[in-house]
């Protein structure tokens, strides 16, 4: 990397995360395949309860593996077995009416990015800007996400970005469980088509949707889960960082660990 590029990168990191600039990590990231932890439940929709607890709990090893992924019945996914591309899949489901969210949407927000990405990012659902444009993470939270990706040497064109639900919940409320259940087969098919090596979950709703866990983010940060053939990490949603900038320090730690996982992927 040229000196000017390095200076620009460090300035960008400082702009987003303050003085916690990038340092190569020497810590090992624990895997949940070899540990069991109890996690604190939260009330549905209580995102605010999650974003106030930002210190990860110490990892306790255990001999019994922990089931970490939501199980979607195979007969539900078989409906899409013949679909082999993201474009074809989007055309198939873009007029979905499976839940109440469809009645209020302007545009169906499928997802966007590299169809062969090694990295997939999953958020909660579309906001007002996304509902107007039909693309995920294009508002203020989306710009912050773009900057975070840039700070860990990714571009949006390299990764694939999607949400747990494809239609905007009214007034940006947290999606209801039935709405999440209706959309999850769609996300599962997207994951099957992209085949990411790594997934970063942004916020509590993404954790609940993909891993089926009602848990504080602080209890899950810094750990590696598995979903199919992908390794999964958790951090705060960019919108939470806009509401509470104090969470940026923990998010910076999380995304550095995530980048470290990426750098350790076997060469293909």
Structure description:
With 268 residues, the chain is α/β, with parallel strands linked by helices. The chain has a single domain, classed as Uracil-DNA glycosylase-like domain (Uracil-DNA Glycosylase, subunit E, 3-Layer(aba) Sandwich), CATH 3.40.470.10. Helices cover 38% and strands 9% of the residues. It is built from 11 helices and 6 strands. The protein has helices at residues 3-17, 47-51, 74-77, 86-93, 101-104, 128-133, 140-151, 177-194, 204-211, 238-243, 248-263, and strands at residues 112-113, 119-123, 160-163, 198-202, 225-227, 230-235. It has a 6-stranded mixed beta sheet with strand order 1-3-2-4-6-5, with helices on both faces. A hairpin with a 2-residue loop joins strand 5 and strand 6 (230-235). Residues 20-67 have low confidence and may be disordered.
Helix content: 25-40%
Spell the H/E element sequence.
HHHHHEEHHEHEHEEHH
Query: What's the count of strands?
Result: 6
Distance between the termini: 23 Å
Name the CATH superfamily classification: Uracil-DNA glycosylase-like domain
The main sheet orders its strands as: 1-3-2-4-6-5
Strand content: 5-15%
CATH class designation: Alpha Beta
